Fold these 2 entries.
Entry 1:
Amino acid sequence: MKLSMQDLEKPETVLITEEHSKQLPVIRITKIVLQDFKNVEYGEINFHCGKDFVPYGTKSDILGLYGQNGSGKTAVIDALYILKQLLRGSKVQDLFSECVNKNAPCAKLTFLFELQYKDERVRKAQYEFCLKSEEVTVDTEERMDAAPDYFALPQSKFRVVVFNEVLSMSGPFHGSDQRMNPVIDTTGEELPFGPKSRHKFIIGLDKGNRKAFQLEVNKRLAIDRSQSFIFMNDSLKKLKEYGSYSEYLQVILELNHFGSHYLFVVNTRSSGLIRLNLAMLLHTPRGSFTIQTDGPYSMHQDVYDKVSPYIPKVSSVLSQLIPGLSIELRTIGKPVMSDGSTGQLVEALAIRNGTVLPLRDESDGIRRLISMLSLLTAAYNDPSFTLAIDEFDAGIFEYIWGEMLEIFAESGKGQLIFTAHNLRPLEVISKKFLYFTGTDPRDRYMQLKSIARTNNMRNVYFRQIEHGNEEKVYNETKRRSIKEALQEAKE
């Protein structure tokens, strides 16, 4: 079976026309619904931008998610990671087969998007799909290996099956304002999808059903490859080939572009390279790149040309947060690369009060902060950029974290989603941006009610933990029982 690293990027095909690229909308996630996903039987989050309209490119949108360990915070980040893989046409990694609730046959995830265009048009798109776990058989492996664009992790006993995809849209389409209705629905018996009334817009009129048959083959391949049928690269190419460049297809391509270029998810597995002191991710306006931190390494010249101008910009922000600290990508030599071209031998360095050290000698927190700063900079400046980070406060001084959030809330433009344990943000950002996990798996996410503008959310949250009231956000622990358990453990 073919193997690849977790975040290996497949070569991307440019599917949006040059004219279309000049009219791309700002896309925001406005709602997430999780059903039977991990320990969430049902959980619904309505983002602030989904409840109060935010005009095109004017304000940031934040979602901070708080709760005790194992209460469903990471489930939201994992769901967004799966969404990104599906939108960009990639395989959902085998490890996510463990995310289906053990007491349910499948999980269902629903995401609502708002698309705002420069000409003030506003459309909405809802993408829902189901996931189930399937044991990998020899027959399954052979079918997947036959797929030319298949990428996999090392062999796993189980894999993810993506099925029952439904993409619905509302807003101005083809000269009229339309309610939210399915454009592509794979839950029924219609081939290659329903409703048939949309076929003329999506695949054109095909009396011989040749196009429908070829897309049906794609649908079966997508199931074998743990991919989205709607957004897999070959489906998008066929939809462009079969139908006119319809407004429905434009939205499908815009969501694919958003997943590929503007939705970034940093989960705890992504942070593993930093903790192992191997590498960190650097996001630039020209793409995302892995910067090795375990020693000098060879970099292709074209990558160096994209990365090197951006390092000083990240360094300037870093020096404001941590006075006396800056970073540098220093050139050591010009090696010959495997393709015969001349590259750059570089090393990532940290300069602290004039003393130069390899970046690997800095703490995990500093290296994580540097990696996050490049992504935060993009989210701060670009209204279409959505950044989701699990445990963003890990290893970062709480006051710095609070300062960054407060600035983002005041003058940022993009969308920031985070989970955290540190309670400093509760003191600096509005309650409208905060959700809390509850103890009921059938109603997992909530916003605290009856909070006055002058209330300190940190104090309110502590009181809620201690007293419970109607909104139970904490499974009560008993000090005496903990003390007895600690004492018994020594025997």
Entry 2:
Amino acid sequence: MSNEGVDNGKRRFLTLATTAVGAVGAGFIAVPFLGSWKPSAKAQAAGAPVEVPLNKLAEGQMVKVEWRGKPVFVVKRSSAVIDSLKNTAQQLKDPQSENAEQQPEYVDTVIRSIRPDVLVLVGICTHLGCVPQHKKETEVEWGGGFFCPCHGSRFDLAGRVFSGVPASKNLEVPPYSYINDDNILIGVDEGAA
């Protein structure tokens, strides 16, 4: 076979052009495919730690944030509330928070927090999963805390369940840590931040 009349320059150009178009096409296919391996922004946000600023939180005030699809309560407690927590043991089902699954090991089991003035709880009633309401100590005769409107369970301002109510366990304390004095990070264990 003879190569007479064949334009080698044109052949090289067509070969290179076809290769380039093929590479671009492969890139258009590969980028979305590889991107599908990465979790969606919604999935990343669902498990991502949540930073909560404390410097604008006044005594007695509560803020609610969402972490992993659950409401999390952050409450600023007064020294009077903290002192009262030590005097309510006879009214509670689990005053010493003996169920280790309900709080990380680095929180105090009576005040159920790292720092006495800041309480962090998962806001889901341990009876049937309703969201309790925050009741300030001045609003109710039982000293304040959390009241579940679904079936009447009550929890003190440490999230410990009162005796004689449907809920059987204290409210859960999620893993959290202090970034600094004015910010906490919910979802990251103390010492791991």
